[in-house]
Amino acid sequence: MKYPMHTVSKPVSGSEVEKIAYALKSGGYIANEAALALAERIVARRRQKSANVVQK
Known about the structure:
Distance between the termini: 49 Å
Strand content: under 5%
Largest sheet: none
Number of helices: 2
Oligomer: single chain
Helix content: 55-70%
Order of helices and strands: HH
Radius of gyration: 18 Å
């Protein structure tokens, strides 16, 4: 399968498969610390922008 920007899909095996399967069955998710930190920064920025719009 070809992906944009020449990325390559890597097979998942072992404990990673178990983590993904558990997350899917429990309705959870898997993310690393960098991804969570990015999401928190985006949410904080959007909250700040929406607070500024309400104040005007």
